[in-house]
Amino acid sequence: MPLRTPEEYVASLRDGRRVYYRGERVTDVTTHPVIARAIDHASIDFRMAEDPRYRDLAVVTGDRGDQSRYFSTPKSADDLLARSRLIEAATRLGATLVVLVKEIGTDALFALGNVSGEVDARSGSSYAARVRAFHDRCASGDLAIAVAQTDVKGDRSLGPAELAARGNPDAYVRIVEKRADGIVVRGVKTHTSCTTNVNELIVLPTRAMSEADADYAVSFAIPVDTPGLTLVASPHGGAARDAFDHPISSRHKMMETLTIFDNVFVPNERVFLAGEWQAAGPLALAFVEFHRFTAISYKLPLVDALVGAALLLADLNGIERAGHVRDKLSWLVGYAETLRALVEASATRFRRHANGTAVPDPLTVNIAKMHFASNYHAAVARLQDIAGGTLATAPSGADLEIPEVGDWVRRSMLGRVGTDAVERLRALNLASDLTASDFGGYQEVLAIHAEGSIEAQKLTILRQYDAGAARAYARDLAGIEG
Ligand SMILES: Cc1cc2nc3c(=O)[nH]c(=O)nc-3n(C[C@H](O)[C@H](O)[C@H](O)COP(=O)(O)OP(=O)(O)OC[C@H]3O[C@@H](n4cnc5c(N)ncnc54)[C@H](O)[C@@H]3O)c2cc1C
Question: Which atom of ligand 1 is least distant from the CA of 456?
Fold first, then answer.
């Protein structure tokens, strides 16, 4: 039966992978104090499949028997909605942090499934069969997958070949050798989430390529223990922390890496694009069409948490009836519920690919992502305003226990008459972890950049909108003939 237990997932990560953390080689990621937190967080996807409360959502029965829903290619609006609900439920269990070890990888598999057939039809390659075989392998092995799309890029105003001509050839991953049995790749990807704790890594091009960039038009998958692959993990958010003071980030974490390909050999059956430069842009876009839908689905618990914390603290601070507070609360509710409505609309307005796959409506998805990202900091500001400065100055939970000052500390944290001081401190710690800790900063950067920058969403919105119809309507209203 292709479902792994959380223990089997964890055991599969002990494979000699080459990981560095703060200048030291990590010999076993599963026992590393920081990476183990990320592994426990990622295990949520495997625990849900075993949990009777989530099993119907997390598991589907298909040709392979029971398998994780993530690997099911969506064929309808209902499939997309069920996928979205699964991502939302997993993120809720992750206390607002996406799990991602199956979500992003299957986004890439769906995109490769849609684009590889078109490449084959144009160039006589056999990528579609390879993608299908790899998809089957991932589903039947219940594998955890990371996706490395973003290259380090260097000077953003130059393309890959132009950069190589100016002495920076490794800013984008490229093919350095084509052999009869495969390709050799070199270069560096960045910001790759979960790489330390997945089984497979899918590599996609990050942008459209010109003919001169053909060597950079490359897509493939490799196991994380492949020789030549090195992961340099970011220490961001890695400090040890107390569960009372940091109710979310003490238990939940993702790891990001610089992902270095130092002449890595990839066998042919794992190569999905190798030089067909015209397909690099469409593949990059096909991935984000699915991945931004994943993003807006996993943002829902985060925006709900901002609303909930603001409501809680408005009450505990005794300011619930104040006009400016009601104004901020209604703005926050509108922000969160607009996102939820757009997620549903993205699924119900889906477009069907020629192969039958349901693709979330790119126009609605990008509007949803832009709505979320461009208002996120304003939402944080409203919660911070309602909470007060204690977000950045609160005493620790340990201070409550000191005989000399514990009672003073407790009474200092009192809010509305009749409410509990420790409950108020817990609510403040939640808001602080969400908005004023390194985890809060991580969420802010994630909002702006992950799944593509806000500018990328604007480009897609303008590209996808039916400007001709809108212009024709305006011409008609204005009485302009022809
Ligand atoms: C926490 C986190 C997790 C992530 N996880 C993953 C992951 O798992 N896999 C993955 O592949 N990626 C991942 N990303 C990467 C994410 O998709 C990128 O951050 C995003 O695409 C922006 O790229 P960048 O960070 O290189 O910023 P840049 O592209 O450098 O953007 C900085 C600014 O420069 C502008 N800019 C860039 N190029 C140009 C240009 N040519 N002309 C004009 N303006 C330009 C941008 O619009 C932006 O305003 C993650 C990012 C974060 C923060």
Answer: 47
